[in-house]
Amino acid sequence: MNDSTNRRKVPPLRIGDLVIDPPILQAPMAGFTNAAFRHIVREFGGAGLLATEMVNARGFVWLDENEAEHPDRLWGVADEPRPLAVQIWDNDPETMAKVGRRLAEEYRVSVVDINFGCPVRQVTEKAHSGSYLLREPNRMHAIISRLVEVCAPTPVTAKIRLGCNRDNINCNEIAHVVEEAGAAALTVHGRTAADMFRGNADWDRISEIKSHLRNIPLIGNGDLDSAEKVVAAFEQYDVDAVMIARACLGRPWLFAQAAAALRGDPVPPEPTLAEQRDVMLKHYGLVVDRFGEEKGTVLMRKYACCYAQGKHGARYFRTHVAKVSTPEEFHSVVEEYFPLRDPKEEVESATAS
Fold first, then answer.
1. What is the pLDDT of residue 65?
2. 13-263 is classed in which CATH architecture?
3. Where residue 173 falls among pLDDT bands split at 50, 70, 90?
4. Global confidence as pTM
5. Cβ neighbours for 94, distance < 8 A, ≥ 6 positions apart
């Protein structure tokens, strides 16, 4: 991992005039990648481009027309460091254009990303958006080209899946549509919509798409949960950048580890369990500062479960933290149940003695 002499140099990612270095992106994830999470990721470093949660364009327009506060998913966007991408979704070109123009002109975001990959039923079957639109290339073209027109010079990008299901994989065709419509980059999650998050991401399929693009970069996404896998993605597949998603939710330091590996530097070790607990508590403080003690505590439940994932005793912690509703309860559960002892270390210690 530390020998950079045999590794091909990975150049920065270019999205229009924007240079992303390192070419490691944080995925937009609904319910998770808010300003508090992005703050924690920035403190560790390593993410070349961060992204908000996906924003419902139609909901944004309604709030705007009714002079209500803009969506919580845009919390922090106006003031936080750049580069920053905001992802939006809907199926109407004009609705998307209204929001895209506001994001580019008022919020001055670095990238406006379009979600054509969400597989959740509420977005697909009920709203005919997200990955549903993979079956309507002409509408995708209309949405992208309209956003490119109103957002310029802010680059517009698109995120897709391989197709709606395994019998209808059309990512190569869609790649043509995305580029011809004027998008500045394409991100591909290596599963179909029907797969949801089951099975393994198909990086061979992702890599094949590169030959169907003329000038815009290809960003690969799916199952990147270690620095080693990030390096392997660049070495084994024809991609210009990678995007890390679910694996970073409880490990916001993963980007720094991956960036070090790409440089050929020593990979920072995992923080100790006590340090991980402290990161979680800092995260909790940021959420409470924004949403208040009651709402912030409830919102933090899912983040806390992510921080404990994969650790010895995580199930007991999840069971208890899922019920907390006050700061006192949260801190009490963390104190009593957050995993602070690694059973492997205990075994090693006992063997050594």
1. 63
2. Alpha-Beta Barrel (3.20)
3. very high
4. 0.92
5. 146
Task: Output the average pLDDT for the chain.
Answer: 92
On whether the CB atoms of residues 241 and 13 are closer than 8 A, the answer is: yes
- Tens of pLDDT along 324-337? 999 999 999 999 99
56 and 96 in contact (C-beta within 8 Å)?
Answer: no
Positions of CATH 1.10.1200.80 in the chain: 273-344
The region, left, alpha or beta by phi > 0 then psi within -120 to 50, assigned to residue 45 is: left
112: Cβ contacts below 8 Å, ≥ 6 apart: 85, 86, 88, 100, 103, 104, 147, 151, 154, 155, 156, 157
Catalytic site residue from 118, 151, 248, 306: 118
| Known active-site residue 164 | no
Within 10 A of 65 (CB to CB), how many other CB atoms are there? 9
pLDDT at 88: 96
Place of tokens 């697909």: 124
Q: Which fold has domain 273-344?
A: 1.10.1200
